[in-house]
C-alpha cells in the first residue's frame, strides 16, 4: 500500500462509519416515524380518526394510564347496576364485563371516535374494527393477505418463536399441514381415556384435601389443578410423556408468559428495546434458553425410543422433510413444540377455571349439568360416545357461555400483508387490525339486555341461533387461522367438568376476589377459590 492510500485510511474509515450511522438513522426514522405517518395518512384520507399519537411511543402512555386507573370491580358496582352481573348464593354481584377491565382504553376511544378508529402501539399502526358489516366480510375472508401480525414475533418471540401461531405464508401453511391431522376429531376420540386418567388424578387430590379439612369441605384454589390437568393431557396426547416429565417446560413457559405480559404496554414496545440487555430481558433470554434445552431433551429421548405416531413425531418428521440445516431443524422443532404447549395448556386450563367459577356462582346450572351427566354417563366414567352425546346439551351450552363471557384470547388480530378492502375501508399493507372479541361477546345490541349475565340457555339451539349476529362469537377465532385444537379443547373440558361435577358439589369461597386480568390470556388475577364437598 503506498503512503498516499495509508494517509487516506482514517478518512475512508470515517466515511464508511458515517454512511453506516446515516443509514441506521434513516432506517430508524423510517420504522419509527415515516412509515407510521404514511399509514396514518392513508387511514385519515378515508375519514378514519383516532387519538393523536406521540412520535415514538404512539398512544402507549394513554393505554398505560387508562389501564392503571382503578376499574370498577365487583365491590364498586352501584345498586342500579346489579343487572349487569350474576349474584352468587351470598348475594355478591359478579360482573361479567372483563373487556372494560382488560382493555379500558379501547372502550374509551370507541366512545370518542366511533366503531372504526386508529391508534398507535408504539410505532405499530393499529386499526380497531367494531363495525358488524365489516366484521362479517373479515370473518369470511380466506385470503392469506390477512396474516398474523409480524410484531407478534417481536413481542412474543421468546415464548412462541416462529411456530404455527406466529408465522405467515408458506412457512405457516407447512406447519399447519403437519399439525392439523393430529388434532382432528377422530384422533381426539382416541385421547378421551387419557383425559379421564388425568381428571382422576385431580379427583384424588381434591378428595385428600377434603378428608384433611374440617367440616367436610375444603377451600381449594383450583387454577394450578386445571393447569396440571391440561398440561398432562397435552404432554401425553401430543408428546408421549406426562405432565411430571414436562413440568419444568410448563413452569418456564408460564414464567415467560408472565414476564412478557408485564411488558405488553411498556417501553419495550419501542423499536430495539427488546434487544437491550436489561435485567428483565436477560431473565427472559435465560428462560428461553432453558425451554430450548428442555424441549430438545424430550426430543433426544424420543429418538432413542420406539417411534410413536403422535404430534411430536409429526413435527420431527416435518422438520426432516423441510430441507433445513441442523440448527434450523432444532428451531423448527422447538418453536412448534412451544406453540402446542402454549396454545393448548393455558387456554384450556383457564376456560375450565372460569367455567367452574360460573357453575359455582349459579347453583341451578350446576345441578342441571350434573343431572345431565348422571343421565348420559349412567354411573360410568365418560367415554367418546358419552362426550359426543353432550354435543347440544346443557354441558355444551355452559361451555359456550363461559367462552362468551371469558374468551381467553380477548382480541382477534391480523396484519394486512397486502392492501386489502373490507366494505368501504381499505386496510393498507402493514396495518394491524384489532377486533375486541371480549367486548363483542357482551354487547347488548348483539346479545340482548341480558348480554352481561350468565345465561347458557341462549345457546340451546346452537351458536347460530344464539344471537342476532352469531359471526361475532369467535372464542376460537375464524377463517383459515381458526384454532386447530378446538375439538381437543372441547373434549377436555367436557371430560374434566363431567368428572368434577359427578364427584363434587362446590360454591364460591368467601375468599374469592373477582378480578379478570390480561396475561396474554384473560385470567383470574387472584386465582379461583371454591368451597368443595364430596357428593
Ligand atoms: C378452550 C381452549 C382454546 C381456546 C379458547 C383457543 C383459542 C384459540 C384462538 C382464538 C386462536 C387464534 C385463532 C385466530 O386467530 O383466528 C387459536 C389458535 C390456535 N390454537 Fe387454540 N384455543 C384453545 C385450545 C387449543 C388447544 C388445546 C390446542 C392444541 C393443542 C390449540 C392449538 C392452536 C393452534 C395450533 C393455533 C394456531 C392456528 C393457526 O395459526 O393456524 N388450541 N386458538
From TrEMBL:
The keyword Metal-binding applies. InterPro entries: Cyt_P450, Cyt_P450_CS, Cyt_P450_E_grp-I, Cyt_P450_sf, Cytochrome_P450_Monooxygen. GO terms for molecular function: heme binding; iron ion binding; monooxygenase activity; oxidoreductase activity, acting on paired donors, with incorporation or reduction of molecular oxygen. It comes from Punica granatum. This is Cytochrome P450 714C2-like. GO terms for cellular component: membrane. Keywords: Heme, Iron, Membrane, Metal-binding, Monooxygenase, Oxidoreductase, Transmembrane, Transmembrane helix. Belongs to the cytochrome P450 family. It is found in: Membrane. Coiled coil: none annotated. SUPFAM superfamilies: Cytochrome P450. Its main location: membrane. Residues 66-86 are annotated as: Disordered. It is a single-pass membrane protein. The chain crosses the membrane at residues 12-34. Gene3D superfamilies: Cytochrome P450 (1.10.630.10). Its cofactor is heme.
